[in-house]
Design brief:
This protein has 121 residues and is an alpha/beta fold. It has helices at 17-28, 77-86; strands at residues 4-14, 34-38, 46-55, 68-74, 91-98, 101-107, 113-119. It has a single domain, classed as 2,3-Dihydroxybiphenyl 1,2-Dioxygenase, domain 1, CATH 3.10.180. The two termini are 20 Å apart.
């Protein structure tokens, strides 16, 4: 069974993403795009949890009306999307394959869009 293996990112809408990133850096020490870490079962393998403010006008979170979105790391996106589809979970758009890995999107019961990410090794 495919599943979520970690938190890939936290995305939120704001008026001024650049200013927000600078504030979080200055006051909380969050640098760059997030937090680097190593896998517990394979310390040689690196991972990252992305922290990313988006412009308030972004349509990336659509169809959700919320001002935030979570990104979860998954171990097999194709299989997980098929499982979720069979369980009646709403799939949003088509799976995308990029230089960072595979991405898919679903909606939870309260209308929160969730991004699922299978990183490239």
């Amino acid at each position: 069974m495919a599943k979520v293996t970690g938190l890939g990112g936290v995305f939120f809408k704001c008026d001024d993403p650049k200013q927000q990133k600078e504030w979080y850096n200055r006051h909380l020490g969050i640098e760059g795009y997030g937090f680097e870490w190593r896998h517990k079962d394979n310390p040689e393998k690196e991972g990252m949890t992305v922290f990313s403010p988006f412009k308030k006008e972004t349509e990336y979170f659509n169809p959700s009306k919320k001002d935030y979105m979570f990104n979860y790391i998954v171990d097999n996106l194709v299989e997980l999307l098929e499982q979720l589809k069979q369980q009646g979970v709403e799939i949003v758009g088509e799976m995308q394959d990029s230089e960072y890995g595979k991405f898919g999107w679903i909606m939870d019961p309260e209308g929160n869009k969730i991004e699922l990410w299978e990183p490239k090794d």
